[in-house]
């Protein structure tokens, strides 16, 4: 039998309820954890900064609104219920013309601003 060491109860996680707890933009919150990966929710509005992640691929799934993922050579619109994977090492900049809600799935080591440190970097993420 597996030792009970989970910090997380085996319960349904309602994303709408969790999103109602998020009041700032570009500040990811942890909603679940598995296999060293985190599931996060974040609200985007406006332009983020250009960055890349040396070691992590990132998944962005749009749950409300739409976002644009800018790459150096093109831009990709990601609509509600669409997702995009940004491979490690690839420079990107998420943009949301209107507020959008996004689910992220990425290793626990992933920093939101990747290789760039700024006032928009969040090192310690809140769990909601
Ligand atoms: Ni990124």
Commentary on this structure:
With 128 residues, the chain is mainly β. It has one domain: Jelly Rolls. It contains 1 helix and 7 strands; from the N terminus they run H-E-E-E-E-E-E-E. The protein has one helix at residues 15-19, and strands at residues 29-34, 37-47, 58-64, 67-71, 74-78, 83-86, 93-107. Strands 1, 2, 3, 4, 5, 6 and 7 form a 7-stranded antiparallel beta sheet that branches. A hairpin with a 2-residue loop joins strand 1 and strand 2 (37-47). The structure holds nickel (II) ion (NI). The site of nickel (II) ion has 5 residues, from loops.
State the gist of this model.
The chain has one helix at residues 15-19; strands spanning 29-34, 37-47, 58-64, 67-71, 74-78, 83-86, 93-107. The protein has one helix and seven strands, in the order H-E-E-E-E-E-E-E.
How is the topology of this model organized?
Layout (H helix, E strand, L loop, with lengths): L14 H5 L9 E6 L2 E11 L10 E7 L2 E5 L2 E5 L4 E4 L6 E15 L21
This protein binds nickel (II) ion.
Key traits:
128 residues, mainly beta, Jelly Rolls, 7-stranded antiparallel beta sheet, 1 helix, globular, binds nickel (II) ion
Residue-averaged pLDDT: 92
Q: Total strand count, please?
A: 7
Q: Please give the share of residues in helix.
A: under 10%
> Which range does the strand content fall in?
35-45%
- Would you tell me which CATH topology applies? Jelly Rolls
CATH class: Mainly Beta
Low-confidence stretches are none
